[in-house]
Amino acid sequence: MQPDVSSDLKDLEGTLTTIERVLDLDELDWRARELEDQAADPSLWDDPDHAQQVTSELSRVQAKLKKIRELRQRLEDLPVLYNMAEEEAAEDPAASEDAVAMAEEERSALRAAIESLEITTMLSGEYDQREALVNIRSGAGGVDAADWAEMLLRMYTRWAEQHGHKVDIYDISYAEEAGIKSATFVIHGDYMYGTLSVEQGAHRLVRISPFDNQGRRQTSFAEVEVLPVVEQTDSIEVPDADVRVDVYRSSGPGGQSVNTTDSAVRLTHIPTGIVVTCQNEKSQIQNKASAMRVLQAKLLEKKRQEEKAEMDALGAGGNASWGNQMRSYVLHPYQMVKDLRTEYEVGDPQKVLDGDLDGLIEAGIRWRMAQQQEEGA
């Protein structure tokens, strides 16, 4: 093998070994066997909530072990691919090109997979492994901001689809002229909250406004909020007396009726004033259940922020705020997406808007970890 290939494989070996050490494979193996024993107990389902926790954790642990072992096997097989390519080159140089290309492609794919797993090891927060509840709201900028909010909704759903994550949209409030006022949706999958929580903040768009007859440049803003999906183990109780329930008829863009019954639901949490809506399910009961999940997630986040503020007041933590404006997307007079926290830049905004967010998200997670390490020092 060429020296640069050998050096790269050595780097991949070191990274994977570190990941294996951080995740503690012996501990994972032990935990998997313990959960398998619990899952095999016929009395487990006497307590359905506990049974669900056991089976869910078992699935996660088994998937993690399988992924690490597959990556280790692929890394051990990669030198064989390069050796085969060298042997073919000695016999038939022309025919060896395909073998070299295959080995290079596998090396690139393996590096991406190992780096992705490395990022997952950085997600060790209390709620990081949960699914993500995302709220997008248009901000300053009028109709351009509403259009921008809809562009962000498309960007995140595209990213989720590209990674095989299901998206459930709970509610969309359409603006009168174009775009949306707000949207609430869940991205399903392990570690979605930990991954996407670095996307929280104000997103700024600079472009020539398609809604301005004079073709002037417009700056508009949209706010992204990311919350962990509430699970049954969370102690978030919402008494019926604390919630006002209003029902109304669902509507689509421009006020067009999309439902002939009063199935949409608006919940108002009286003690805090938090309001959530859901209109995308088929029945009032389903919409109410989805709205309640959103309300619980918001109350959980409020509780977390209050606890964090108390700890900070005692000198136990640093500033939790990352600054409201976290990323700029410039389409005119030049092309660039820049994260204002990490300084990470992308020269092709359209790729980002089409869902190519991995580089920005990875840089955000690494930045957050560095911030946490500085605060803990």
TrEMBL record:
CC annotations in GO: cytoplasm
Residue stretches making up the Prokaryotic-type class I peptide chain release factors domain: 249-265
UniProt feature coiled coil, ranges: 51-120
Compartments where located: Cytoplasm
Keyword Transmembrane appears in the UniProt entry: no
Highest taxon, organism lineage: Bacteria
Keyword Coiled coil in annotation: yes
PROSITE patterns: RF_PROK_I
Keyword list, A-Z: Coiled coil, Cytoplasm, Methylation, Protein biosynthesis
Family: Belongs to the prokaryotic/mitochondrial release factor family.
Name the UniProt record assigns to this protein: Peptide chain release factor 2
Source organism per UniProt: Corynebacterium urealyticum (strain ATCC 43042 / DSM 7109)
Gene expressing this chain: prfB
